Amino acid sequence: MFGGFEVFKYVKLLIVCSFLLCLVSAPSWSKIRDGIPCSSCHTMHYSQNGGVLSSWGKSGPYKALVVNDCLGCHTGVNNGQNYTPYVYSTSEPLYGQTGTESNTNTLAGGNFFWVANGSDDKGHNVRPFPEDSVFGNTPPGGTALSSQLSCAGANGCHGDRSKQDEFEAIIGAHHADDTTIDGKTVGSSYRFLLGIVGYEDPNWEYQPDVSHHNQYKGYDRASETDVDKSTISYFCAECHGYFHNGSGQISDNSAGWGSPWLRHPTDYDMSNTGINSEYRDYPGNYAASGASGSNPYSVIAPVGSENVSAPKTNITFQKDAIVTCISCHRAHGSPYKHILRWDYYGWPEKTNTNGCNACHTSKD
Amino acid sequence: MDGQKKLIPMDAMPVTRQKTKFISVLMALFVFMYGWAVSFSWAGKYTDSAHGDKIFGVKRSALSAYGRGNCGHCHLQHGSIEGQAIGPNSQAIGPNSFGLFAPNYNTNVTESPYEASDNICFLCHGPSSYQSGGITNYDYSKTFGGSSFVTVNTIFDAFNLKNLYTNSSYHDLYDIYSFAKNQGWSFFKDKSNPCVACHNVHLAKLIKHNVQNAADYSAVSLPVSKNIGNRQEGHNTLWGDDTDERMSELYPSHYQAPFYYSSQSTYEPGGVSDYTGQKMPDYVTFCTACHNSTNEIYSTELGRYLRKIDWYTIMNDGDSAEVYSDKHGRNPASVIIYMKKPYVSTVGIGRDINFITSCTDCHEPHGSPNPFLLRSEVNGVIISQQINIDDNTIGYFCKACHKDDAALYGNSSLTNKWEGVHHIEYDAPYPRQHCKTCHDMGGGGMGGKPPIPCLKCHKHGYKDSLSGRICF
After folding, report:
1. With contact defined as beta carbons under 8 Å apart, do A214 and A65 qualify?
2. Chain A residue at shortest CA distance from B63
3. B227 at A interface, C-beta within 8 A
4. A243 at interface of B, judged by CB pairs closer than 8 A
5. Hey, are the CB atoms on B42 and A361 less than 8 Å from each other?
């Protein structure tokens, strides 16, 4: 039917098409998974049949030819099967007591629902949600932002903050090879937090258990000015500086580091505490589902580690019991004041659940 | 041999199966015991404490968002509240040591009177309390002795009685701090508060609401480690809450609890019917953790080191010792003592000699209108007279338990006269001659001689060389 030349021609065409497909479609090692059509996220003319699709954002056209802004794409209800992590839900998500129970549908960062609905101290006040009524645009522990917080960009968390615009700050990251999270580029940084490393749970901690969770990077530092710029706590400190590091800001110990603390330490390895200290009983009553053995990991009050190649199922107190900002707080929002993971303010009068006791095991 | 596992039918290895079953049972038992032990150790220590109590615990008026008992009433995790590091009265609230909302303790103040800001505890346990509704803390005499005499209403007041009473005394906080710091106790740091030498604020229970069960609701923790059986007591445990940490166990059948105020049938603490100390923490072991026969403890107020105390050794009057063992402790009286109820054989534990007393039977822990932290109510009797250290007015205190001449001879005009026990009664140590040897002026009739200051002989660890007797 075909001559040899024609066969060669078709093979050549197939190779070229495959190459093009590789270029334009999502490789399996990026955030955008195989099989997702470009049109799920992009539009060439911000127009379809002369109009704007109902699923698209209404403020377009958007940069990078995308169909919506950050929040627009990441709004929805998580069900454990969704490809896109939803960080904002238009109806109240299921958080339970700690956001980790089997009947919950929030992710590791929590959800912006509460800050969007009248509780400005229950989420990071990113646009378009209300500014913080107490702090305005000045992050506690840090200096004022030039404008309201955004998802990305110069006043954002994700992406390259040297870029003013949030699209430009994040551009290309979703298609980047993230098989190795090394923090060198936005795409290869933990959750696109430039410079930060960590293990990313593929399900973003939807109903996490002892084997399925993020592993946050921590650092067993030696002084209150000693920092590792790849830790999750250092990232928070880029805005909330004094809460993490600074001379005379964290420790009142005459040796320069250690108890008595001035502020709750982060990037502090509880392995430095005495063998009989209460901290060696981590996680107290707060072990993750599926836990076994000594000192199982807690997804309620997670601790960081220097090695983040895989999620820890158990703590060995060898640079893997590191307090982080994320040990107590959700990054996006929670139903609790100051984005805490549990109802700290209500404890013990109104609730028996207090993740503080995962570390402060004798204070329950 | 061929690299493959050889499969053996289960029923072909009965011994192995039994072993497996046995091991399984053992493992299950271990898991259960471990779980039980773990759950026992997580028995809610802080939430059982006075500060963590969800009904009576910490609740600062200014912090309505925080639940009662919440850590945030004392600790600011980020050294600020709502981003503010300045409090409502323009005082800096953070960051402070231990993340506290105010400076923990002012080491520049070496003696009373104190300001509330000198010690963070005073900010709540003081007259202008930050605590919603305030906190009332009476002294030991009223709280556990039932005294109708109110000397203080707060802990702060107890440490500041110098403002009200010339001869008052208090447990000097700087002295405690200095002593504790030099002991090398791991829990006590340079920036620690002297109160934590005696109290673990995360464990201390609501004893004032449970005065008749003072031991179960103990508010103190040993500053030193003490092994008892398989457990270790210390700063991280309460002292008195275990049954073998009671006065009744210190020297069994030798502790007689003093009367509750105005009662002849109920006893301390709190007016209980028990007189053996089953409800009373073993305050002897607690206090002698510091005030013992070896520690050198300096008193800023007295300008000298405190007398050492041996409450345990049994010795004879003729024995030599660097510190003579007190007869108010385990060391028995030599021959006879003349005591009032309940320290007579017809009442209580049924003995009239060889008692052991608790430090709190005589002393206040925080402050007193009297010298040496002597209580204002003792053995059911209020001490209304002013007590001085340089005369015999301390006798008014002693006669709450010991018989003065008025009690011995039924003559009220001989109140606080002590000729009987010293010169007249059986086993009296001093002959009625050479009066001037002891009495400065000498001469005179019965009770007419100038009294000798009690403290000349009756003090901790002292033996009178004239009589050759240990006389405290």
Report:
1. no
2. A345
3. no
4. yes
5. yes
Q: Tell if the CB–CB gap between B78 and A261 is shorter than 8 Å.
A: no
Residue A231 burial by Cβ neighbours in a 10 Å radius (0-12, 13-18, 19+): buried
> Do residues B315 and B324 make contact, with C-beta atoms less than 8 angstroms apart?
yes
The string of pLDDT tens digits covering residues A188-224 is: 999 999 999 999 999 999 999 999 999 999 999 999 9
Tell me whether strands A156-158 and A150-152 are parallel, antiparallel or unpaired: parallel
Q: Where are the domains of chain A?
A: 92-364
Burial class (CB in 10 A: 0-12, 13-18, 19+), B183: middle
- On average, the pLDDT of chain B sits at 89
So what's the pLDDT on residue B343? Answer: 97
Q: Which two tokens stand for residue A286?
A: 């707060």
pLDDT of B470 above 90: yes
The DSSP output letter for A56 is S
**Hunting for tokens 């000097």 — which residue is that?**
B172
B382 has which bridge partners? B377
Which residues of chain A from 215 to 234 reach within 8 Å of chain B, CB to CB? none
Please give the model's pTM, rounded to 2 decimal places: 0.89
CB A303 within 8 A of CB A292: no
| E strand spans, chain A | 150-152, 156-158, 198-199, 215-216, 268-269, 322-323
Distance CA A324, CA A264 (A): 10
The predicted pLDDT at position A315 comes to 98
A133 and B CB contact within 8 Å? no
Q: What is the pLDDT of residues A246-288, one digit of tens each?
A: 999 999 999 999 999 999 999 999 999 999 999 999 999 999 9
Q: Chain B: give the shortest CA distance to residue A123, in Å.
A: 14
The predicted complex's ipTM stands at 0.90
